[in-house]
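Re: the 405-residue chain
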Amino acid sequence: MNYLDLQRAKETFQLESLENERQVLYQVRHKFVKMFSPKFIANMSIDDYVYGKGEDTFCYKLERTLANLGSINTRFGYKKFGVWWSKDEGSYKFDPLFGKTYLEAFENVRKALLKLLEDGAAEDDKSISTCPIYSLVLGKILSVYYPEKYLNIFSSRHLNHYLISLDLDTKELMGKHPIYKGKRLLEFKNNDPDMKNWSVDMFAVFLWGHYPKDPRLQEGGAIKSKHKQPVFTTITKPDFINLQIVSGQHATSQAATGTKSKPDYEALERRNKLLGDRGEHAVELAEINRLMKEQKIPEAEAKRRVNRVSLISDSYGYDIISQNADGSPRYIEVKATQGNPGDMEFFYTANEYAAALKYKEAYYIYVVYDICSTKPKIWPIPNPFIGNNRLELVPIKYRVKINTK
């Protein structure tokens, strides 16, 4: 997660105007809940429920009329509702998961729906996670009936994208039912001083359109650039490795080598920022594990001793403050790449170089390789700008100041 990008996105988010624009959606949602009350559902007919019997049915309104409050349109088609009406065949169809006949399937779906609404009111996530209703439909129903309790983003793939982008992903969480993933995102929202008073719907709008944005952007589906956005997976075990520096090797950047086509600097910067942020997350996890082993302290204490200052400001000249085995401070600058362990080129700022000279032996560069994998490799380099094995810096950028009158 890039804290500064998150802050900028929150500052430019037009909360009030967007919320006013969506009032009509909230009215439609209110009418739906009033129309399909638990009492009505308990006695509704199959034709009140199934898709294919007009625009006033439960399934049609849930998917189409309320589409702008979360999409459930998927490749599974009508099967996701458990039972439906086929106009082509002139008969009811059903998912055998719910019964041996369409009537039995409908009764079981109705019972599951009523139980889901009961569990949703009680926020019984354990029971919800065992509900046989298709997870996308389940999530949509909960967010419609309890809009301030459940997030109106339902796809596990999309939820995973946001959890990873916000550094909230863990191996345990990523293997759970989508209901737990949505709850973790809402926990993040409610702990944020700016977003805690936002409605859940406004938070979903913010995630989708402002930060971290539509998951397809990160997957490269909506960006036409040779600098495709990296797709990350949950980090399960970052490992430390050792490599040797060849004395006198230049620290340069790929941008200095030139290219025949015009570089897409904006896309390249966006890509490098994503890699850097994820690299910091990997190092943070690795440092917590290292301190637990070296200092024989519990995880909670190790987390307190690893401070990712880059989330506060990018002015420090390093990204993370950790500790050495003896408890002395360790200042860590992180550089990350999708490539395998080996040679690497990266940008280095004057501010970072000044920090390296200031903190001397307490300063490290951590190079994170294979950052898109579940097990990135981390090479901790003791300050390479001091001693006899110093890197040679080659200037490739200049600050230009123009005075006008």
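The first strand starts at residue 83 and ends at 86.
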